[in-house]
């Protein structure tokens, strides 16, 4: 169940979008809810607040000037079925890669939202946790 409470967000992402409706369809498929839609002076949506899990918030704001591929955000998906996330996003027609195992002991799904933002869902591979710790231990402390 998604936490719908209002709390101080220690970090959030603001993404410019050209079509709030298309953004809403994409992010709902990715497991987010629309927590709030804030209108501007004429009543048109000025912002949609999406939330997936506690502290996984996106503020989508209308903008006419977006450079595709200029924004990327990664969300932890530790308790989620990455295959199901990938399929739900693919059903919207969005480009999706994965699930793919990475060299740094995670499995990732990478999707491109309707405005060209790269959205990554990442999950540690628990069966390789000991190997990952050994890898981390090879780095020198600064």
Main sheet summary: 4 strands, mixed
Terminus-to-terminus distance: 40 Å
Q: Which residues sit in consecutive blocks of at least 5 with pLDDT less than 50?
A: none
Count of DSSP H/I helices: 3
SS-based structural class? alpha/beta
How many domain modules?
1
* CATH superfamily placement: 2,3-Dihydroxybiphenyl 1,2-Dioxygenase, domain 1
Order of strands in the sheet with the most strands? 1-4-3-2
Please trace the helix and strand order, writing H or E for each element. Answer: EHEEEEHEEEH
Q: How large a portion of the residues is in β-strands, by DSSP E? A: 35-45%
Shape summary: globular
Per the CATH scheme, the topology name is 2,3-Dihydroxybiphenyl 1,2-Dioxygenase, domain 1
At CATH's second level, what is the architecture?
Answer: Roll
| Strands, count | 8
The CATH class: Alpha Beta
Mean pLDDT: 90
| Secondary structure: helix percent | 10-25%
- Rounded radius of gyration (Å): 17 Å
Could you please describe the fold and organization of this structure?
The chain is α/β, with parallel strands linked by helices and 142 residues long. The protein contains three helices and eight strands, in the order E-H-E-E-E-E-H-E-E-E-H. It has helices at 20-29, 82-90, 129-137; strands at residues 13-17, 33-39, 45-51, 57-62, 72-76, 96-101, 106-112, 118-124. A hairpin with a 5-residue loop joins strand 2 (33-39) and strand 3. The longest helix is centred in the N-terminal third of the chain and has 10 residues, at 20-29. It is globular, with a radius of gyration of 17 Å. The termini are far apart.
């Amino acid at each position: 169940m998604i936490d719908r409470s209002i709390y101080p967000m220690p970090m959030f992402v603001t993404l410019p979008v050209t079509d709030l409706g298309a953004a809403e369809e994409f992010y709902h498929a990715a497991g987010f809810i629309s927590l709030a839609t804030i209108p501007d002076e004429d009543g048109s949506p000025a912002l949609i607040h999406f939330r997936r899990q506690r502290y996984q918030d996106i503020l989508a704001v209308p903008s006419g000037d977006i450079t595709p591929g200029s924004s990327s955000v990664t969300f932890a998906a530790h308790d989620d079925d990455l295959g199901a996330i990938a399929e739900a996003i693919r059903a919207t027609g969005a480009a999706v890669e994965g699930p793919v195992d990475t060299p740094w002991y995670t499995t990732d799904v990478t999707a491109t939202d309707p405005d060209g933002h790269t959205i990554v869902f990442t999950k540690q591979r628990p069966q390789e946790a000991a190997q990952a710790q050994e890898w981390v231990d090879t780095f020198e402390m600064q």
